[in-house]
């Protein structure tokens, strides 16, 4: 694929993502997915792991030397990369099922 085709595709992909996001919001599915994600992350210990990392950062640097923005900047990549693949697959499957159902109604 040429870079021109890539550039043409990005706005279309962005519009599709926006349309999907809007549909998820309108139907309340986005909130249900977020709640499922929260539950699964708690169940697998992900939340506890992130709390441990946070406490470790505060202990190493000192509470006075760390801002909330510092914590967010440092913990976000750790948090994203440590979400179990099984949870990502489950959410993706739920989104696909939702989209398939929406296309049939």
3D architecture notes:
By secondary structure, the protein is an all-alpha fold. It is elongated, with a radius of gyration of 19 Å. The two termini are 34 Å apart.
Layout of secondary structure:
Blueprint: H1 3-27, H2 29-43, H3 46-61, H4 68-81, H5 85-104
List key phrases describing it.
5 helices, 105 residues, elongated, mainly alpha
Explain briefly what this protein structure is.
Helix content is 86%, strand content 0%. It is mainly α and 105 residues long.
Beta percentage is under 5%
What is the mean pLDDT? 91
Largest sheet: none
Shape: elongated
The Cα radius of gyration reads 19 Å
Order of helices and strands: HHHHH
Give the helix proportion (percent range): over 70%
Q: How many beta strands in the DSSP annotation? A: 0
Give the quaternary arrangement of the chains.
Answer: single chain
Ranges with pLDDT <50 over ≥5 residues? none
Distance between the termini: 34 Å
């Amino acid at each position: 694929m040429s870079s021109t085709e890539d550039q043409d595709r990005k706005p279309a992909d962005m519009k599709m993502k926006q349309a999907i996001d809007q549909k998820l919001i309108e139907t309340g599915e986005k909130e249900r997915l977020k709640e499922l994600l929260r539950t699964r992350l708690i169940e697998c210990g992900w939340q506890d792991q992130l709390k441990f990392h946070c406490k470790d950062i505060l202990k190493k640097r000192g509470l006075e030397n760390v801002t909330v923005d510092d914590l967010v900047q440092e913990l976000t990549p750790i948090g994203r990369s440590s979400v179990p693949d099984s949870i990502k697959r489950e959410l993706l499957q739920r989104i696909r099922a939702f989209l398939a159902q929406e296309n049939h109604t």
